[in-house]
Design goal:
The chain is α+β, with helices and mostly antiparallel strands. It is built from ten helices and 15 strands.
């Protein structure tokens, strides 16, 4: 039992030093990610010039005034024109949109079914996403009410990283405005949900694309106003307002160029700072490395990153599979495959602590590589805590599978604790407790 407590303490320290600590250092605080709740029945809405209607500058996951998702883009213009600008294929020939090219009244967004609509270098399509409610006020004579999005668009991969836009059109046909909530997000295979990374980068991308439209005066037609809806995610309260009235509309699609950040690093001469004692300790640790440690590490990395890559590949190439079918196929690799393979490979290792650290360290590395692939800049505190727990759980499973842990019985305290923690954390995550 004493040895098991030591291993558990070491795993907690490894999880915090190499995953939890660095993640929390660059992540928002709990107050930044938690929505504020208001009990006022009719909150203040933002109204528009020459329009009777208005909208509350937040979205909510339920019909309640939770300040969760701030609106960050408003376009003054006809909703069909706005969607056309976001989705019509761009061939470099700027022409006024012909009425024949517009969709019929029965199917206002029928052109989205065409495979040729795309942005600069990337394809756009109608998105699949959770419903979010907007509080709109039609104006005099009508009561404010909740409404769902008119349309969802995305650029990217459902099981990878994507930019996601929800559009809400004016409740009155004569009031020509479209409110948008744009954000970047990635699919989290541990929770089977999309995690919002932020709203600022998406807003800047869309704003810059509207400013590059031919005939747009960046000073007059694209401005920012403060809607006082800062707080959630990295929102600063300033919303982009695009005025399409009087412009010559052109079939232009948003191009979302991926941002590649290049960091120049100067390698540290670590060897010059090592003492003789440090070198002896490193040599001793090196001597304890077995081939099984490498097999264990590569197996965890391959399965974890393989699910990410496999999900994106299936989404792009196999049209017969729905998003739920892909999740049902690949999630068992995370939930069952990783701990089972970890146990089988670690069973051939000798030392409990070495097996535990190798498994936890490999999962930490896989998580960081996955975050790098998805361009994740910050994480909510609850996600960081969940990641630390699964890292510790996998380490306990590996430690409980090692030869020295199974000398008397294959069922030992390390294995029981690891499996129980793994099941409770993943189960609690799926049921919304994490």
């Amino acid at each position: 039992m004493r040895r098991s407590l030591v291993i558990g303490t070491v795993l907690l320290a490894v999880a915090f030093l190499f995953l939890g600590g660095p993640s929390l250092l660059f992540s928002p605080s709990t107050s930044d990610i938690a929505p504020e709740e208001e009990d006022q029945p009719r909150p203040e809405v933002h109204s528009f010039e020459d329009a009777d209607s208005g909208i509350w500058p937040y979205l909510s996951s339920r019909e309640h005034h939770d300040k969760r998702s701030p609106l960050n883009i408003i376009v003054r213009g006809d909703s069909e024109d706005v969607v056309q600008l976001l989705t019509e294929e761009s061939d470099g020939d700027w022409e006024e949109i012909d009425e024949d090219e517009m969709a019929t009244e029965d199917e206002p967004y029928a052109f989205l079914e065409d495979d040729h609509h795309h942005a600069t270098g990337t394809e756009w399509g109608e998105a699949v996403g959770t419903t979010r409610y907007a509080w709109v006020d039609p104006g005099p004579g009508e009561d404010p009410h909740w409404t769902t999005e008119t349309l969802q668009l995305d650029d990217g991969d459902y099981y990878g990283e994507r930019m996601h836009i929800r559009l809400y059109e004016a409740p009155n046909s004569d009031d020509e405005w479209v409110a948008m909530q744009a954000h970047t997000e990635h699919f989290d295979w541990f929770t089977l949900r999309h995690r919002v990374d932020g709203v600022e980068r998406a807003q800047l991308e869309i704003e810059s694309e509207f400013m590059e439209l031919p005939g747009v005066d960046s000073q007059e037609d694209v401005q920012r106003i403060n809607l006082d809806n800062s707080g959630p995610s990295d929102a600063d309260g300033w919303t982009t307002v695009v005025d399409l009235f009087g412009m010559v509309l052109v079939p232009f699609a948003l191009g979302l160029a991926s941002q590649q950040r290049v960091r120049e690093r100067t390698p540290d001469r670590i060897d010059e700072r090592l003492t003789d004692v440090d070198r002896r300790r490193l040599a001793a640790a090196y001597d304890r490395i077995e081939a099984g440690h490498l097999v264990l590490s590569m197996s965890i990395l391959a399965m974890f990153l393989g699910v990410r890559i496999g999900g994106i590949a299936l989404e792009r190439t196999v049209d017969a599979l729905t998003m739920h079918m892909i999740a049902a196929m690949l999630y068992p690799v995370i939930a069952v495959g990783i701990p089972v393979v970890t146990y089988l490979v670690a069973h051939g290792l000798t030392r409990r602590l070495d097996a535990a650290v190798a498994a936890s360290g490999s999962l930490i590395l896989a998580i960081w590589l996955d975050y790098g692939l998805m361009s994740v800049d910050s994480l909510p505190v609850d996600v960081v805590a969940q990641r630390m727990l699964v890292v510790v759980a996998l380490g306990l499973i590996a430690g409980g599978a090692a030869k020295r842990a199974t000398r008397e019985s294959w069922l030992n305290d390390l294995l029981v604790a690891g499996v129980a923690m793994w099941v409770l954390v993943l189960g609690g995550t799926l049921f919304g407790y994490f």
